[in-house]
Each structure stands twice: as structure tokens, then as C-alpha cells.
Amino acid sequence: MTPSRLKRPAILALSLLICQSALTNAQTTTSADAALERRALAAAADWQAGAERRAALRAQLKRAAQLARQAELDAEDKKAELEIEARAKKKIAAFALRQLMQANNERETAAAKDWQVGETRRENLRSALKAGAGYDGAPKRQTIAAQSANGEDSKKQAERKRAQRAAAAAIERQQATKKRDQLRATVARQVAFEDRQRLKAAAKARAMALITKRAQEAATARRAKAEAAAKARREALTKAKAVAKAKALVAQKAAKAIAAAKAAKAAAQAKAQAQAKAAAQAKTSRQVVIATWGGGYGQAQQQALFAPFEKQSGLTTKAIQHGGSTDQQIVPRADVLNISSLAAEKGCRAGNLMPLDDLSLKPAPGAATIAADLIDGARTKCGVASMAWSHVLLVQTKSFKRRTPTSLKHVFDVRRYPGKRAFVKSPRYILELALMADGVKPSEVYKMLGTYEGLSRALTKLEPLRPHIIWVDRAARAYELLLSGKAAIASGYSGRAFRLVTSNPTLKTIWDGQIYDVDYWTIPKTASNKKAAQRFIQYATAPKSLAANARHFPYGPMRRSAVAMTGRHNILDIDLQPFLPTSKKNLRSALKFNSLWWAENEEQIRSDPWFEEITQPVSKATRASLKRGGTRTAITKSRRKKRSTQ
Q1: Average pLDDT over residues 428-442
Q2: Number of other CB atoms surrounding residue 227 within 10 Å
Q3: What integer pLDDT is reported at residue 163 of this predicted model?
Q4: Three-state SS string across 132-186, please?
Q5: What is the dihedral of CA 429, 435, 439, 442, to 10 degrees?
Q6: Coil, strand, or helix at residue 568?
Q7: Distance (Å) of CA 299 to CA 9, 264, 272, 294, 321
Q8: How many whole angstroms separate alpha carbon 627 and alpha carbon 204?
Q9: Which end of the chain is more exposed for a tag (fewer CB within 10 A), N or C?
Q10: DSSP secondary structure string, 43-89?
Q11: Letter string b/e over residues 310-341, b meaning 16 or more CB atoms within 10 A of that residue's CB
Q12: Separation between Cα atoms, residue 344 and residue 326, nearest integer Å
């Protein structure tokens, strides 16, 4: 150890002692200023309270002024209302007086008219009397005397009526005079009331003005007092800030010293952590984490791929089981994923997988290009095929006495090849088989199945098999029915079919119309060791590696050169060419399974009433109709008509 390294701990300890002493001195020098600081804070609080009181007082003054102004406005409005009401009452009294005088004049005019009529009658009577004085005869004199007497009576009646009208007019004049006197008294009382209201409003306004003036004087006095107190508090606060600034400067110097000591310690710790992290990264960069399938296939990969890759590359591999899930949260530490075609397609579209366009694959020995060696579907944008497995048909030869079915058309011919068929209750695989059995080329199956005519054609081909189909929920159950003799033909997968056929000589596989699917090697974007992952995929997809994997587990290599290299099984020591889905003979009439198409259309096909009806138990009447060859076309037409109307 060098002397400079020996001095570092002593320097750090001395720095800590100096910092502690500086903090102690700062505390002792500032204890005397604590009281002053508290007083300054109390003064600031008092100034704040005074400010609040001043604000409250200003609000009160503003409210008092508003009340005084409102009182003045109310008095003016009341005065105007009273004046309008007085003028209205005067107009009403004048109108009533005019009405009374007009009625009296009308009565006097009527009385004068009546007296004039009486005078006219009397004048006429006198003229008649004078005219009749020259004639003789008692009747005429009696008549004139009677008329004269009647005239006297009429005159007396007219005088009585005139006297009555004069008395009535006098009474009405007295009543009118009384009403005028009452109206004048009412107007006088109203005027006196209005005068009193004006006096009260004026007194109230003077009182409010006096209150406002006194409140303003008090507010001015309090404001002057508050300003003086605020000035004193500001001076105290300025002094306290100066003391606090000096104290903060001392504390800042002490903190810098402590921070320098801590920084030196943290630097030493960071250096040690960086060294440990670099060692861990160096160890991790030499390891490839592979998420793959479990069971026998995972063991075969360990023996055929992982262990030889470690020897060849000098890297280490770590296999983890994903159980069929492709969720990046479940396998966040994986550098390589071995997943299904649907998961690879969805992950690539979602941007969760790395494109492998620039990944170079070595061509097989003697091959000019890699493209000629790859089987259809061996490579996609984000994946390279690891193997192919297929859906096949398995036949129990003991169930057929005369002839054994060897092709897909034989499976759909129940007349020449009678017996139960055990199929999985799913539109997958069975509809493709129906179309290929009806003569559709494998390259046109999904194009045809995506149309109404194609789906109807597949269901029509499948309908005669209804009485002979045993629908099961999984492929393992179909193989169980085949082994027990309850079914003559069963649908399933090539891996288990290989184990059954090699252990039971009465079973045979029909490769005609096989539907193969592919698993892919992919690299997630979260991979921490992408270069090592690319090296592993290049090694695992080389022809020798694919052939070695197939010898351990008879899935089909997706390179023609690897199929030719496969040879015999490692344990059973049998030729694997008849059992590989991608061998030249078995691939001749094979169909590449379109998992993405089914993901988009399976739900709609499952809900189709025709398909639901086909997968239901068959009634006796329908079974009898299907057994009669001539009625099959009529039943199919009725199904098509029913489907077209929906």
C-alpha cells in the first residue's frame, strides 16, 4: 500500500473534526441572536394582524358609505313617490268636483225645461179660453171651465215639482259641499304626512353622515398607528434577516465541508459498485437465456441444440419454460423465444419482436442459395422456423376388413370405408380437410374458405359424415377412441401419432391432406444479449442442427437439406423419413396452416347455424335421409336456403 493511500483516511477524519468544530462554534455564536429573531418574527406576525384589521376597517367604512348613499337614494325615491301620489289625489278630487257640478247643472236645466213646457201649456190654455168667449152654449163654457180648472191643477203640480227639484238640488249642493270639505281635509293630512317623512329622511341622512365621518376619523388614527408599528417591525425584520444571513453563511461553509467528505466516500462506493456491475455484465454477456417449450421436446432441444451450441460458441445457455405464453412480462429476461406462428406474427405486428431481415443463414453444402433450401413458411420478418408439426389422420386397420383407407378421399367415403370417425369439435382442420377431399388444391383452400361458396362447399362435403362422426373435445380423446376400437379413423397431431404408430403395428398414418404448422425462433426487443441470440439462431437453424433435433423428436425440419440429413431415430433406430411432416413424400399434398386467418374468422364460423347443426347429434329421420343417396342433395339445398335467408 502506497503512502498516499495511507494518508487518505487521516485526511478524511481531520476534515470531519474541522466540520464538527465549525458547527459547534456556529451554534454558540448564534444562540444570543435567537431571542432577537423570535421578536422579529412576533413583530412580523403583529404587522400581519394589523394589516388584516385595517382591511376589515376599510370594508366597514365602505359598507357604511354604501348604506348612507342607499339611505339618500331611498329618501329621494320616497319623496318622488309621495309627490306623484299627491298630484294624483288632487286630480281625482278636481274630477269628482267637476262631476258634481255637472250633475247639478243638468238637474237645473231639466227643471227649467219642465217649467217652460208648463208655461207653454198654460199660454195655450189662455189662448183657447179667449178664443171660445164669443160662442154661446153651455157645453162649450163647461169645457172651457174644465180646461181652465185643469190648467190651474197643472200649474200647481208644476210648481210643486219645481219646489221638489229645488229642494233636491239644495240637498245635492250640500252633499257636494260636504264631499269637497272631506277631500280638502284628506289632502291636508296627506301633505302633513309627507312633510313628516321628509323631515325623518333628512334626520337619518344627517345621522349617517355623522357616523361615517367619525368612522373615517377613527380609521385614520388607527392607520397612522399601524404604519408606525409596521415601520418598527420592518426595521426589526431587516436586522433579523441580516443575522440569519450570517448564520446561514456559517452553516453553508460547514455543509460544504461535510458534503465534500460524503462525496469522497460516495465516489469510493460508486467505484466499487461499477467494478461489481462490470463483472456481472461480463458474466451476463456470455449467457443466452432461451424461453421454449417444456416436456420431451424441451429435453430434445437441450441435447440436440443447447449443449452443442455451448461447446461450439464458448457461451452458456439458460433454458426457461414459457408454457405457450408469449407475454413479454412473463419472460422478461429471455434473449430468444421459441413460439408458435400466431404468436410470432402478432408479436411482430405489435413491435415486440426484432426484425431478422439482416440475419444471414448459411446455405446447405452444395446448394447455391438459401432460398432454394427453405420450405414454404420457413422464414418470416421476425422469425426463423425451428420445426414443423402437423395435423394428420390415424387409421385403425383392424376396423376395415375388405380395404383400408389410404387417402383423404377414402376418409370421406363412408359407403366403401364404413366406420366411426373421431374428430375434434372445432372448425379448424376439419373444414380444410373437407375442401381438399372435395378437390380443392391446398394453395387455394383459405381463399376458397373465405367465401360463402367455399364454406358452403366444405359443409356440404362434411354433412354426409354426420351420422358417422364422434365429436370430441381434444385430440388425445380421439386417439383413445381409436385404440379402444370405438372409432376407425381419428384426427390428431403428428408427434403423438408417431409414438402410437411405432408402438402399435395395426395403426397407420394418412399423410394425404396433412396440415402443417411451424414454430419460430424469435428475439424480443427486451433482449439484453442480442448478438449472442443471433448467433444461437444461426446455429439452431443450420441443417445439421435441425436434423439432430429431428432425430431426438420427430418434428419436421423446415430445410430440405436437413430433412435429407435426418436419417434414423436416436433411440428407436428406425428410418424417420415416413414420419416427418416435411419429408418430400409427405409434403406432396400438404397444406400450410394459416393461424392468423383462423384468429380473425374462427368465432364467426363457430357461430354459423349450419356448422352448429352439423356438430349436433343426428336424429333418426336425418340419419335415414342421409343413408339414402338420392335425398342428400335436397337436404343440402335446404341448408343453403336457410343460410341465405339469415
Answers
A1: 95
A2: 13
A3: 85
A4: HHHCCCHHHHHHHHHHHHHHHHHHHHHHHHHHHHHHHHHHHHHHHHHHHHHHHHH
A5: -50
A6: strand
A7: 57, 53, 41, 7, 11
A8: 117
A9: N
A10: HHHHHHHHHHHHHHHHHHHHHHHHHHHHHHHHHHHHHHHHHHHHHHH
A11: eeeeebebebeebeeebebeebeebbbbbbbb
A12: 8
491 DSSP β-pair partners: 393
Q: What is the pLDDT of residue 166?
A: 83
Orientation angle between helical segments 34-131 and 138-284, nearest 10 degrees = 160
Residue bearing cell 217649467? 115
Closest CA to 424 of 370, 487, 377: 487
Neighbours of 44 (CB within 10 A): 16
What is the identity of the amino acid at 357?
Answer: D
Cα–Cα dist 494/29, whole Å:
91
For residue 28, is pLDDT > 60? no
| Mean pLDDT for the stretch of residues 521-548 | 93
Q: What three-state secondary structure class fits 212?
A: helix
Alpha carbons 319 and 302: distance in angstroms, whole number: 8
Grid coordinates standing for 494? 403428428
Neighbours of 298 (CB within 10 A): 17
Nearest by Cα to 574 from 501, 515, 508, 512:
501
Strands 336-340 and 507-522, sheet pairing: antiparallel
Q: Which amino acid is at 191?
A: V
What does the alpha-carbon distance between residue 205 and residue 406 come to, in Å, rounded to a whole number?
Answer: 121
The number of helix segments (H) and strand segments (E) in the chain equals: 19, 9
| Residue 444, all three cell numbers | 387455394
For residues 600 and 591, give the distance between their C-alpha atoms in angstroms, rounded to a whole number.
19
- Between 24-38, 69-83, 150-164, 505-519, the lowest mean confidence (pLDDT) is in 24-38
Average pLDDT in the chain: 83
CA distances to 187, 362, 369, 373, 560 from 366, in Å:
136, 11, 9, 10, 12
Q: What is the structure's pLDDT at 308?
A: 95
Position 160 scores a pLDDT of: 84
**CA 195 → CA 78, 390, 490, distances in Å?**
12, 116, 120
- Please check whether residue 559 is in contact with residue 587, taking contact to mean a CB–CB distance below 8 angstroms: no
3-state secondary structure of 191: helix
Tell me if 558 sits within 8 A of 581, measured CB to CB. Answer: no
Residue 93: in which H helix or E strand, if any? helix 34-131
319-355: pLDDT as tens digits = 988 866 655 544 667 899 999 999 999 999 999 999 9
Strand partners, 52: none
**490-508 burial string, b = 16+ CB within 10 Å, else e?**
bbbbbbebbebbeeeeebb
Pick from 253, 328, 327, 320: nearest CA to 292: 320
- Which residues are 318's β-sheet partners? 289
Question: Residue 554 to residues 424, 561, 576: CA-CA distances in angstroms?
Answer: 23, 16, 7
Beta carbons within 8 Å of 227's beta carbon, 6+ residues apart: none
Q: Kindly report the pTM of this predicted structure.
A: 0.56
Q: Comparing C-alpha atoms, which of 461, 438, 431 is closest to residue 608?
A: 431
Give residue for cell 397407420: 508
pLDDT digits (tens, 9 = 90+) for 439-460: 999 999 999 999 999 999 999 9
